[in-house]
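User: Hey, quick favor. My workstation is busy. Could you predict this chain's structure for me?
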Amino acid sequence: MVEEKKIWKKCTEELSKVLSEKEMRTWINPLAVKYSESGIKLLAPNKFMKDEIEKKFMEQIMVVVGQVGTNMDVSLNVESIVKPEKTVEVPRGFRTNLNKDMNFDTFVEGKSNQLAKAACLSVINEPGMFNPLYIYGGVGLGKTHLLHSIGNQLDKENKRVVYLHSEKFVQNMVTALRNSQMDEFKKFYRNLDVLLIDDIQFFAGKERSQEEFFHTFNALFEYKKQVVLTCDKYPKEITGLEDRIKSRLVWGMNVCIDPPDLETRVAILQSKSDALGSPISTEVAFFLAKNINSNVRELEGNLRRVVATSRFKKCDITLEFTKETLADLLSLNQRMITIEQIQKVTANYYKTRVSDMLSSKRDKKITLPRHMAMALCKDLTNNSLPSIGDGFGGRDHTTVLHANKKIIKLKNEDSQIAQDYINIVHILNNG
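Assistant: No problem, here it is.
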């Protein structure tokens, strides 16, 4: 029989054998545990996590508890937190920097951003539970919109909220240093209820800014104040960021936003066109969505271009008009490289099959093409690491990272591998 206090530790060890590192980090590790005569009581930090764990992992947890040799009952509850009675009064002249047009009502939800939005809503319900909430993904996928949505909602509740880009944080700190106002700078940021920082990859290489952010985060974390951050990469992928900061970034909830699927892109286009006062037909929306699939920002930009041109020429937005207006974009998109193209070309180059590259086979004649294709996907497409992993048989993003590092190392050590890389890129670019 496992000693009572070590039961859950043993359970997590067994769960880590069947769950991915991401699943353990996101859902299992944040659970607290209490023991009683009736059994094990697992405590989730909020209702969102409790519901997700019950739906996806509770059966496995029950099995593992039985495997470690106990007959204990297992329950899952939400950990109760005593909330402060007083709300700090917001000082006069206080600036949130929030864009009031960016809120949850104007955010179009789809499969690619569903988890990220749910995590943001949980932050609204219980600030400080997911700390930090770290949202990552490519450019123009809605990360900034979600930050402002959180800020606007909590601002209504008289929370002291500030949104800013990481470069603005650096700029404010430099100004404070120059004017001998660092005490004021520290007091301001460390007494917030909610700190929202966009694009933290720009902290990379800025040691003094990282030092101040590190202490600011620790102060807010200690008092259960909410920190929400966005980035274009998973924490461990950010070069030039101190390890102690990376370790804190994985403490809370890390969620990825992928490029939206076709149906979500159509919904976004129709929502935005309505907001612009120029509704478009479903036919036009599907045409745009099929031809612009990299990110929401590009999608909106080209919609605005079509709308503006229609107003200037006083034309209706028909399918033919849209094709004519975006003729240059459509010509460019025909030459864009996809994950599927990279897989096919790489498989042909190494005289293997795509199905083998997507399989679990690990012999060298399969792993080299697989690693090469993953590295090329990372270098030549706008897909996130989780998206690339999914495209290779549902692999984890860490596998893609490993493959990329492996190919970089091989290219430096083996001139033939370096030439293979160049040859495949040439084939892809010349179709």
